[in-house]
Amino acid sequence: MRDRQVENCKFRRQYSVDYYVLDFYCPEVKLAIELDGASHDSDEAIAADQARQAAIAVLGIRFLRFTNQEVYAHLDAVIERIAETVRELRIHLTSAPSCINFGTP
Fold this sequence. Notes:
Elements: E1 12-17, E2 20-26, E3 31-36, H1 43-57, E4 62-67, H2 68-73, H3 75-95
Parallel strand pairs: 3-4
Antiparallel strand pairs: 1-2, 2-3
């Protein structure tokens, strides 16, 4: 993730959004990457993660979540999933209208 290794995107570590801190964030495509360890397995932690994600998603930020185990065991697949998502988000950004005129010309 460092030095723009994934689709030439700059990912920031421990990025603050509102009252929350994201593990990794790419402002260019508004993509958050969350890595979840065993502490995220309880029902309470799952509910808290869902509420946190919903609050941040309102800001237009898309999430990808991976377990630490996925990263350790399948790093190449994790990186490819991130790269695919970045490519999809870039296509979406370039096809969206750049501005909308709500007033008179």
